[in-house]
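Severity: low
Component: inverse-folding endpoint
Summary: output formatting inconsistent between runs
Steps to reproduce: submit the following structure tokens with default settings.
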């Protein structure tokens, strides 16, 4: 049963967990990234860390050695990518020029761009974490399927 207890939306994703090949490297990466995006550290241990903001959390854990042999690839069965909200196109552009480029974080598809086939005004930059998990920072002024609703 889903309870409606305030401003958290029914069915909203509560948390995501990434299993990393090198916890320390990934934890450092996500600590900087998520702090920049407004998350705060809620847990940090030698093989697991979590960051959160009201209503949802993001976790990173160390992969067990027996599962690490094949590594991650977004075209295999499983998660393809994770997208974070941006409040404007300017935020996406600043994130790209002030964060991704100076840190030499691998950027995909040549940098920020419009993706109108997703929805009107969709503007995003795609990049990779240390295990090549595809991440996205997206400004989405109109959500597909909700064009007539206020979003």
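Observed output (run 2 of 3):
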């Amino acid at each position: 049963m889903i309870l409606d207890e305030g401003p958290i939306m029914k069915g909203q994703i509560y948390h995501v967990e990434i299993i990393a090949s090198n916890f320390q490297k990934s934890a450092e990466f996500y600590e900087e990234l998520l702090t920049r995006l407004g998350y705060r550290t809620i847990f940090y241990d030698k093989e697991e860390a979590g960051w959160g903001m009201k209503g949802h959390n993001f976790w990173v854990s160390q992969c067990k050695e027996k599962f690490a042999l094949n590594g991650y690839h977004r075209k295999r069965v499983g998660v393809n990518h994770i997208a974070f909200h941006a409040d404007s196109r300017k935020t996406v552009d600043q994130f790209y020029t002030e964060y991704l480029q100076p840190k030499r974080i691998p950027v995909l598809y040549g940098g920020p761009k419009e993706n109108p086939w997703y929805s009107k005004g969709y503007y995003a930059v795609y990049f990779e974490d240390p295990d090549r998990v595809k991440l996205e920072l997206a400004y989405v002024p109109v959500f597909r399927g909700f064009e007539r609703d206020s979003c």
